[in-house]
Write a sequence for this structure.
């Protein structure tokens, strides 16, 4: 009987893990440049006993969390500070704790302090660190990531000046992972070098690659599986009580 309960509990545990992944994906279905998390793989494991045989009362092992690196749809916006990474690469950003991370989010803006950042308020890193943007009449970003502005006090005939270049990096050879803080990083925790061959599409945004229909369908399936395993626990309890009643000695 304990084996039946253990199987049900193991299934409930895996369902909860999958539900967290589905919930995170659904919450970011409209987030610009978001890369969805793949559901984790699970493996059944039996421990070898010292005296021979196996012990089936072991929770299934959980595989590593992976990221869906398929690109999202790109839409043209015409906005000067909207960019979409062209190809398989990332923008280098600075997170709240000061560490670098990777991002596909390209809805950029200039902060009150004059720092180029994304809509989440995270600074975009360039070859010289944060990109400082002075007060200007116009701003543009070239296909190679070069940021140019026309200073607000510049003569009318002065050409735009370069203030920095977006930190574009290729996908690390080790692959990528989701950190505990939710940001994407190289699987080996290294900081990829800038890749001058990487390009961006100016005036465009990449949508999230979350498939909302697929995610909603998965949520329904997980809900049904969770309910089924809960019923299995109730059945195990009923059978256990019935067995105990049969073994009870009459007065």
């Amino acid at each position: 009987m304990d084996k039946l309960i253990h199987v049900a509990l193991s299934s409930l545990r895996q369902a909860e893990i999958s539900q967290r992944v589905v919930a995170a994906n659904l919450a970011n279905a409209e987030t610009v440049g978001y890369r969805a998390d793949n559901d984790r793989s699970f493996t059944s494991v039996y421990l070898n006993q010292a005296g021979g045989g196996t012990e089936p009362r072991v929770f299934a092992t959980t595989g590593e969390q992976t990221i869906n690196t398929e690109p999202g749809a790109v839409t043209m916006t015409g906005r000067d500070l909207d960019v979409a990474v062209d190809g398989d690469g990332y923008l280098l950003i600075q997170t709240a704790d000061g560490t670098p991370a990777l991002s596909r989010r390209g809805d950029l803006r200039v902060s009150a302090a004059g720092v180029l950042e994304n809509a989440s308020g995270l600074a975009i890193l360039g070859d010289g660190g944060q990109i400082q943007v002075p007060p200007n009449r116009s701003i543009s970003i070239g296909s190679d990531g070069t940021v140019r502005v026309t200073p607000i006090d510049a003569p009318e005939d002065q050409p735009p000046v370069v203030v920095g270049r977006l930190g574009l990096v290729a996908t690390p050879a080790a692959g990528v992972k989701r950190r505990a803080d939710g940001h994407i990083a190289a699987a080996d925790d290294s900081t990829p070098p800038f890749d001058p061959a990487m390009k961006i599409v100016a005036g465009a945004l990449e949508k999230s690659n979350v498939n909302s229909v697929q995610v909603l369908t998965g949520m329904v399936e997980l809900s049904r599986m969770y309910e089924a395993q809960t019923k299995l626990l109730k059945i195990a309890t009923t059978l256990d009580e019935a067995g105990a009643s049969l073994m009870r000695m009459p007065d």
About this structure: The chain has a mean pLDDT of 84. The chain has two domains: 2-67+210-244, 74-206.
